[in-house]
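input
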Amino acid sequence: MNKAEVLCDRDRAMLAAFSERAFAHLTGRSLKALPLPFVSEYMNANIMKEVEKDRIIIEQAVAAFKAGTRIEELAVDDIIEMTRTVDRAFVKGLMIPSLVIKVRYEDIADIRKKRIRCLAKAVFSLMDNWADSLSFETRIRQAYSEQEFKATMAEFLHLYNLEVRALSSSIKFLNLFSTAIEFFADIIFEVMETAAKEQTADCIIKIFGEKSDA
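output
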């Protein structure tokens, strides 16, 4: 079993479902300044960006675990630099006449470090004593209590939402477009926080079952 691939595949599926939930919550919202086709394209591009960044984090964490590196010794700064190449490609893909291509990475550095550590810690926990015969769901139930996993997922998605908002805020637009983008970023954060709670609850049910004390 290629555990890194399993983790990346599960992360991609979870983030895709999460993004779909968030976009569904936008239906019916007043987005006259930014029509839904633009929003959909933005969110699809954004989720692919985050899936790719998570793949980097997961693969680096798995490699570090196999090398016997302690989680406290993980080269977070090096991983951040790797993820910046993904950000640059994302921003370049959004090029429009009113867009100034400049991301202030200092605005998102602290959030990204927390998110890297959160995901890497989960990877280390799952990799420890994960026998090839065990499914992903079984390994989660072994490694976490229901409440612990719920807290981990909630933290991970909240940090994801914070980073998306910070990244959107750090991209500079001309005045004609900036007000619409700022309004859009606030709405996106709001619906993403709602979607995060729903996605977390859905994952808990799928892994731990319908009956929940959480």
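quick obs: Strands lie at 99-100, 172-173.
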